[in-house]
Amino acid sequence: MSSSAxxxxxxxxxTRMAAAAVLVAALVALVAALILHRPPAPxxxxxxxxxxxxxPVVAPAAAAPDPRxxxxxxxxxxxxxxxxxxxxxxxxxxxxRIVVTVDLAARVLxxxxxxxxxxxxxxxxxxxxxxxxxxxxxxxxxDATHKSTIYGGAPMPYMLRLTNxxxxxxxxxxxxxxxxxxxxxxxVAFARKLFAAVKLGDKVIVTRGETLKIGDAxxxx
Length: 221
Prior knowledge:
The chain is an alpha+beta fold. The strands form 2 sheets. The protein has a 6-stranded mixed beta sheet, with helices on one face. It is elongated and about 155 Å long.
């Protein structure tokens, strides 16, 4: 082989290598362009579940107050009550309206405050010629030192007037065989406590033979 042929082959090899380098550079540039100009991949965001809104809490409607006067507690008197006996204990009773009941058949007066019995006493009452009336009576007058204007100034301590014709509850000697002219007589010590507890307008309910137990309503109250 001549030296000129070798020179031509060497020159041809250099040319091919240069062309290959150019092609590789072009491919690299193309790939780079594709990478740089590729649109960004969409961002996938997780969407939290909707927040459940708490339903408003509706308070139950308040119960309407019971308009009835219901017996809620009876005093515990361990022995049978006899003529002249009386008992008073308001320690367990809340504040509230007072109602007085009188049962002529049982010869007993009871005092209720907010449905709790706070006092009870054996009574005397009107004889057949002057009977104690039955019914519902508001207390219309209070007089701690009252004297009768009908019966010769007879003392009627701690008087609670029930009617305009002289019927009242008042302190009295309470003993076997004693009667009144229609009033309800109670022991003086008990009358003092009752006088202090009641106010004008409080009701006194006089019946004959109507008994009450816990849970019963005093319908006339």
